[in-house]
């Protein structure tokens, strides 16, 4: 499995209450990596610290790693509520992975906006392996009652488990 970590470095993504989306994405991705490795899965990851990480570089790294599955970790900026997962629509395996992740995320009480097909997102369009891009929650609207706080602030980091169990179930 290859994990892409959204944003980083000078691109912080959404920011609210002293937290940056890029940091939350990294916390979630590192927890996902550790959990997958605990289950014996070989994992590649686009970054393990805060650094500039262009999408084109993530895609190159992922394709060079040649994973069986690829997951990109993001969170939405605002204007809605719930988890959503994007796929290219070309891979049944990616659809199954997205649906399994969605089931796990809904199981911890998160709303879902569904599995959506995108023909424009570079991650799902250019990765050679079955790929999903997960938007864990809406950052700005959720921040006051952060449903799934990062581990660094004493939270559980639980949305990573949806991706872990979904990935493990397909391997």
Short description:
This protein is an alpha/beta fold. It has helices at residues 21-38, 55-65, 92-107, 122-126, 139-142, 159-170, and strands at 2-5, 15-16, 19-20, 44-45, 70-76, 83-87, 112-117, 131-138.
Question: What's the helical proportion of residues?
Answer: 25-40%
DSSP strand content: 15-25%
Distance between the termini: 9 Å
Question: Radius of gyration over alpha carbons?
Answer: 14 Å
What is the typical, i.e. mean, pLDDT? 82
How large is the count of helical segments?
6
Q: How many individual β-strands?
A: 8
How would you write the strand order of the largest sheet? 4-1-5-8-6-7
Order of helices and strands: EEEHEHEEHEHEHH
**Inertia-based shape:** globular
Residue windows where pLDDT falls under 50 for at least 5 positions: 143-162
Largest sheet: 6 strands, mixed
Sheet/helix structural class = alpha/beta
């Amino acid at each position: 499995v290859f994990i892409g970590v959204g944003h980083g470095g000078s691109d912080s993504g959404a920011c609210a209450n002293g937290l940056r989306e890029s940091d939350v994405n990294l916390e979630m991705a590192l927890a996902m990596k550790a959990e997958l490795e605990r289950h014996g899965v070989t994992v590649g990851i686009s970054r393990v610290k805060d650094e500039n990480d262009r999408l084109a570089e993530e895609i190159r790294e992922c394709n060079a790693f040649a994973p069986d599955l690829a997951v990109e970790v993001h969170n939405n900026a605002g204007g809605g509520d719930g988890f959503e997962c994007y796929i290219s629509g070309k891979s049944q395996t990616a659809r199954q992975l997205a649906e399994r992740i969605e089931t796990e995320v809904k199981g911890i009480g998160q709303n879902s906006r569904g599995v959506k097909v995108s023909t424009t997102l570079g991650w799902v369009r250019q990765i050679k392996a079955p790929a999903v891009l997960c938007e864990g929650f809406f950052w700005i609207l959720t921040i006051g009652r952060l449903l799934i706080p990062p581990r660094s602030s004493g939270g559980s980091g639980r949305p990573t488990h949806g991706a872990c169990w979904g990935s493990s179930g397909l391997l």
